[in-house]
Write a structure and sequence with these properties.
binds pyridoxal-5'-phosphate, 442 residues, 36% helix, four-stranded mixed β-sheet, seven-stranded mixed β-sheet, 16% strand, alpha/beta
């Protein structure tokens, strides 16, 4: 019989409540918790809280646990490495797992082997490194990034981010020289145009207006872009968006820097989401799903671009041996079927959500690739007024019913389960989601 969530206490349960009180006293108040889930253990798509409640996890720890919680082969690799060596610092010494992982990633990246890899510990560090490498290599000072983008919270990555004002509040001045431009958010076109009649006017505007009036293109180091916007609302641009933008970048020797932190590592059904768009980026930033939950960030660039000198950038913990072994096990699993599963199950999930869209006016848009799927809620299909409150209530009610979801953008919900997800688990998710949407908006 198909496994179901089991909720046997009021939520949060007594043990969870006590821990949350402690958390309130001792843990930074800057974190954003949607609902009071206190996790004890995880297996596959299933998460167990401290009171013995069982949840179906469609968040994968914010798109991180690509192979599911505690995949036995990943855990085995971690244990083996933990017995051998926990840390030595790849910045000052050599060890096998970092070298083997770099070779593997280099073989996967566009350029097929003619790449080098820099290791950090997080998405923000990978982006930070990309930002610095682009400046180092081009010796240019300006950059373009996008409204709605999320690239992390260190000062450099935050300067590229343009997702929510709270993320920047009281932190100015940030790194200068960054111009944010509109993303191809066709459901709410910033130029009020319609695709495909618009002929991607948003991209042409960069060359025709921006580069002619305010930004000398020969001073631009990089265009930094997510293949599919993540935190911004799981926004999939039109198929030719990146190709057109990259063509403009190439014309002016501007680097195309792609943030695959959320979209990468098989989540969209291809190893890197940019493969859907037929563009070979100059630099790729990776993290989240790369090591199934162990902290690791990576930056890949073609050998001729990664030309910085010894001492110009490094991090003590970057490329930790245990994280590298976890990443190698993760990549093996992705290649042995999980990436294909993401494509198949992603299509199934989208079909299910599109059927719900036909039943509920409040589901304005369903979009995504593979297992990176977003649902945007509106008060009314015609005027598309964002239904932020409904979205928030649906997430909270789903939790009460044993389904873990996360928001993105102003009024969207993201579905980013582990790539191990089964059809039966998607059916269960859709069934709970359906009940909750009906209850909240009906
Ligand atoms: C596209 C993207 N880039 C960068 C980051 C930052 O990653 P981290 O939180 O590991 O620093 C995130 C995190 O959500 C992300 O989605």
């Amino acid at each position: 019989m198909m496994k179901s969530p089991v909720i046997k206490t009021t939520l949060p349960g007594p043990k969870a409540r006590k821990l949350i009180e402690q958390d309130n006293t001792y843990v930074s108040p800057s974190y954003t918790r949607y609902y009071p889930l206190v996790v004890e253990k995880g297996r596959g798509l299933w998460v167990y809280d401290v009171d013995g409640n069982v949840f179906l996890d469609f968040t994968a720890g914010i798109a991180v646990c690509a192979t599911g919680h505690c995949h036995p082969r990943v855990v085995q690799a971690i244990k083996e490495q933990a017995d051998l060596l926990l840390h030595m610092s790849g910045t000052d010494f050599y060890y096998k797992s970092q070298i083997i992982l770099a070779e593997k990633l280099a073989s996967l990246a566009p350029g097929k082997g003619n790449n080098k890899v820099y290791f950090g510990n997080s998405g923000a560090e990978a982006v930070e490194a990309a930002f610095k490498l682009a400046r180092w290599h081009t010796q240019r000072e300006l950059n373009l990034a996008f409204y709605g983008a999320f690239h992390g919270r260190t000062m450099g990555a935050l300067s590229l981010t343009a997702s929510k004002a709270i993320q920047k509040k009281h932190y100015n001045p940030l790194v200068p020289g960054i111009t944010h431009i509109p993303y191809a958010y066709c459901y709410r076109c910033p130029y009020n145009l319609s695709y495909p009649q618009c002929e991607l006017g948003c991209v042409q505007w960069v060359e025709d207006t921006l580069f002619r009036t305010t930004i000398p293109p020969e001073e631009v180091a990089a265009i930094i872009v997510e293949p599919i916007q993540g935190e911004g609302g799981y926004i999939v641009p039109p198929p030719e968006f990146h190709r057109k933008l990259n063509n403009i970048a190439k014309k002016y020797d501007i680097l195309y820097v792609v943030d695959e932190v959320q979209s990468g590592m098989g989540r969209t059904g291809k190893m890197f989401a940019m493969e859907h768009f037929g563009v070979d980026p100059d630099i790729i930033a990776l993290a989240k799903g790369i090591a199934s939950g162990m902290p690791l960030g990576a930056l890949m660039a073609r050998t001729e671009i990664m030309d910085w000198e010894a001492g110009s950038h490094a991090s003590t913990f970057g490329g930790n041996p245990v994280s590298c072994r976890s990443a190698l096990a993760t990549i093996e699993l992705l290649e042995q079927g999980l990436m294909d599963n993401a494509a198949i199950q992603g299509t199934y999930l989208m079909q299910g959500l599109r059927k719900l869209q036909q039943l509920y006016e409040c589901i304005g848009d369903v979009r995504g690739k593979g297992l990176m799927v977003g649902v945007e809620f509106v008060k009314d299909r015609e005027n598309k007024e964002p239904a932020r409150e409904w979205r928030n209530q649906i997430i909270k009610k789903a939790f009460q019913n044993g389904l873990l979801l996360l928001g993105c953008g102003e009024n969207s919900i993201r579905f980013c389960p582990a790539l191990t997800v089964s059809t039966a688990e998607i059916d269960k998710c859709l069934s709970i989601f359906h009940d909750v949407v009906r209850e909240v908006t009906g």
